[in-house]
Amino acid sequence: MATRTSTYVLNASYAFSMYDSLFDANVTMDCLDLLPPLPSPMKVFLLVTFVSVTVVCGVGNSLLCFIVLTQKRLRSVTNLFITNLAASDLLMAVLSVPFTLHYYLHQNWIFGAWMCSFVGTVKLVSIYVSINTLLVIAVDRYYGIFRPLRPRMEKGRLVLIVLAIWIVSFLVALPTFLFLTTSSPTTDCRGRTVQMCFENWVNPSAANGYVIFITVAEFLLPIYSMGFIYISIAIKLWTHRTPPGQVTPRHREIMLVRKQKTIPMLITVVVAFFVCFAPYHGYNLALTYYQEEWHQTVPHFYSLYYITESVAMLNAVISTFIYFIMSPMFRKEIRNLAGRILCRCPPVFLGIRRVSFHSAASHTFNTTRNGSAIRKPVGLGGPDNTLETKI
């Protein structure tokens, strides 16, 4: 009987960093099988989940980013923050999910030590960017509702906030980047030469402290803060029908309609994030305190991990659908974009090809196919008013 000494600890080290520190105590076995074979239903589940994330987020979020960045009238503060959310999910879908899927299905990391660190870090940074951006959006909406006379956020300040979100998210994920590595090639029980991608923490207490810190700083506190903010906003909007501020009655009406369409979408995004990530964080906390007990006593230990991670990954897919289902503006722009691609013609609205321009008298002239011009004052709402088309 061959004897192997290993330190095997399956510690999800918070994020999707595969498997944490290998090997804990002396373990005697005929051969080393770090990960048991996946049952076929679990392989199908992982395949469907991860492919959905790659396709839906890759296509949907690319379209969303393209629409907002190419349509100047859509570059509101909230839209640009939502674009940042979409960009983080797109980054994960393209640069991380395919490699993780291959690793889980084959249970063998073949991409090298550098890609191990890169893929795991990209996942974490994407998750932290999402939650931090959602928190910033909530704070911006709070000030927009309760302090409507405050000057609008300038684009330069918005860029600085977005950069700060990415920098902070990377710094929070830095321990994962530093400790992720690959194991030495090992022959498993099936006669294969395999490598593991894992976090090699020298100090187990530090690893557990990191899991707790991430759970509190990047999940519990942001979720609690956003819950308080959106409850306050909902009470303000639905109990005070007229937004405060020295604006015209028509302007107040348009602002109210726009906010009532935006706030439910943002609340839905936050709720979806909580529902998808709460099981994963709960799993990691339980694993932190009951590592040995869970590994030995919890039925389908590995399958439970795959399921909780897959549900968390599906949050990116759910968010993408929410943006397009609950936002008439995004749906309209997708239809216009599809029309331009398929027909190679300008956007069509109600069968009229529209070319808009502003005269010195601040009026909009919409030219129809027969050459006649329809004169319509600007600023009174309707399809040409950018205030209603922005989120």
Automatic annotation (TrEMBL):
<dbReference type="GO" id="GO:0004983">
    <property type="term" value="F:neuropeptide Y receptor activity"/>
</dbReference>
<dbReference type="GO" id="GO:0005886">
    <property type="term" value="C:plasma membrane"/>
</dbReference>
<feature type="transmembrane region" description="Helical">
    <location>
        <begin position="262"/>
        <end position="283"/>
    </location>
</feature>
<keyword id="KW-0472">Membrane</keyword>
<keyword id="KW-0325">Glycoprotein</keyword>
<keyword id="KW-1003">Cell membrane</keyword>
<keyword id="KW-1015">Disulfide bond</keyword>
<dbReference type="Pfam" id="PF00001">
    <property type="entry name" value="7tm_1"/>
</dbReference>
<feature type="transmembrane region" description="Helical">
    <location>
        <begin position="210"/>
        <end position="231"/>
    </location>
</feature>
<dbReference type="InterPro" id="IPR017452">
    <property type="entry name" value="GPCR_Rhodpsn_7TM"/>
</dbReference>
<feature type="transmembrane region" description="Helical">
    <location>
        <begin position="81"/>
        <end position="105"/>
    </location>
</feature>
<protein>
    <submittedName>
        <fullName>Prokineticin receptor 1-like</fullName>
    </submittedName>
</protein>
<dbReference type="InterPro" id="IPR000276">
    <property type="entry name" value="GPCR_Rhodpsn"/>
</dbReference>
<feature type="transmembrane region" description="Helical">
    <location>
        <begin position="303"/>
        <end position="326"/>
    </location>
</feature>
<keyword id="KW-0675">Receptor</keyword>
<feature type="transmembrane region" description="Helical">
    <location>
        <begin position="158"/>
        <end position="180"/>
    </location>
</feature>
<keyword id="KW-0807">Transducer</keyword>
<comment type="similarity">
    <text>Belongs to the G-protein coupled receptor 1 family.</text>
</comment>
<keyword id="KW-0812">Transmembrane</keyword>
<feature type="transmembrane region" description="Helical">
    <location>
        <begin position="44"/>
        <end position="69"/>
    </location>
</feature>
<keyword id="KW-1133">Transmembrane helix</keyword>
<keyword id="KW-0297">G-protein coupled receptor</keyword>
<feature type="transmembrane region" description="Helical">
    <location>
        <begin position="111"/>
        <end position="137"/>
    </location>
</feature>
<feature type="domain" description="G-protein coupled receptors family 1 profile">
    <location>
        <begin position="60"/>
        <end position="323"/>
    </location>
</feature>
<dbReference type="InterPro" id="IPR000611">
    <property type="entry name" value="NPY_rcpt"/>
</dbReference>
